[in-house]
UniProtKB/TrEMBL annotation:
Aldehyde dehydrogenase domain segment(s): 18-476
Protein name: aldehyde dehydrogenase (NAD(+))
GO molecular function: aldehyde dehydrogenase (NAD+) activity
EC number: 1.2.1.3
Keywords: Oxidoreductase
Swiss-Prot/TrEMBL catalytic activity: an aldehyde + NAD(+) + H2O = a carboxylate + NADH + 2 H(+)
Active site per UniProt: 252
Recorded family membership: Belongs to the aldehyde dehydrogenase family.
Species of the source: Hypocrea virens (strain Gv29-8 / FGSC 10586)
Source taxon at top rank: Eukaryota
Amino acid sequence: MNPGNIETRLHINGEWLPGKCGRTFPAFNPTTEEKIVDVHEADWQDVDLAVQAAEAAFPAWRDLSMFERISKCLKLAELIERDKHEIAQLEASNMGMPISAYLACISGAIDGIKHATGLAHDIHGETSLNTPGFVTFTLRQPFGVCAAIIPWNVPIVMWCGKVIPCVVTGNTIVLKSSEKAPLTSLKLAALAVEAGFPPGVINVLSGFGHTAGQALSRHMQIRKISFTGSTRAAKMVMEEAAKSNMKRVCVETGGKNPAVIFDDADLEKAAESVAASIKFNSGQICVSNSRIYVQRAVFSEFVDTFKPKFLDIAVGDPSLESTNFGPQVDKTQFDNILKLIDEAKDDGASLISGGCRAKDKGFYIQPTIFVQVPKSANILKTEVFGPVVAIQQFDTEDEVIAECNDTQYGLHGTVFTRDVSRAFRLVKAFEAGMITVNCSSEVGPYDMPFGGWKESGTGRENGRMGLESYFEVKSVTLKL
């Protein structure tokens, strides 16, 4: 698909409409640094129009049988599979993810649709005869109009992960994509129409957080909002939600995820796994292991094993299958990562690889390794969201647990060891929502809850918990 040929208007009530404000914004190709196309911008008026469409569509959609809703979701999965190469090329142009990696993301999104629709068959309430003379039971009923705000790093996974659980359970939705990568969301809106979703059930807006995002967060007819993005923006979403109608809020805001390598670990496998975690999408992934803690006895051996695996990249045009390492999404992200690298050097961290621009054109950054990083350095605290890793030494289990938890984030943690008891102690001690043992974040099961502790978020998506979060629960008492 030529990105210049995609529909760039707002998708509201089954129609493509220009934004009420009359403004557009450019979508750029981070490989060429050139504009691809102008995209219509949504403001509060468009948000309200989309919410009214979703509100009007809700009663009929809610009253459809679960089987009919599931059928439409599975049809959408078929269409995504049909057009997966077009979608991958589109995202390579707009966001810069290599198609080899994005095809895997598309497969994951399809698997997520199938899993959510499978779970939907089994949604039910509870019953009780514990009160003499009464039957008590619960009902699970959809909220109504929900909203989603998705990030730019893996749009198809985020779009499907928020839209499908929402609509299969009988809700309707207004989704805002990121202004950095809006094109995939518009393509998916077109496929939803082809899949047979009625007008108003799925509405897709392109725009900015301070306008459309704020309008969604404070809209009085939206009953739930799901957000993935920065901690700063998440706090604003939560504040607006609380100040308006106390809508339900689910947020996921990233992490500073540690990987712990004990001296009994398989260092070859650990190095391979953690390197893959950080290189994926050029480090632009919330669960990447950007901090590595290695037990002192094997520190040098691990670094020597890890370094060539981390630096083994094929930099180039992400639309080519031979490329496995693409650019950062835009100049803002590119400049911020280089600034954090320079800051780490000023803080006294030892740079042993990378740290510079990788190509003269395009927002490419070399895979970057720091060692001997002072504990107070910002690079150990801040989510870089790029191909940058800090490798530290530790001696004892208690010491490394304290180091790992010394952050406001709590999304993901990893431990490599052959000692099962030790592994379980670390699993319990990590202050994080997701843990991997002897593997890293390259493994992402869709049947388990996804979400974080502390400032990595609140609420869960995926799995049964994620699906059930799109229902209100009603307790009913019936006198016999």
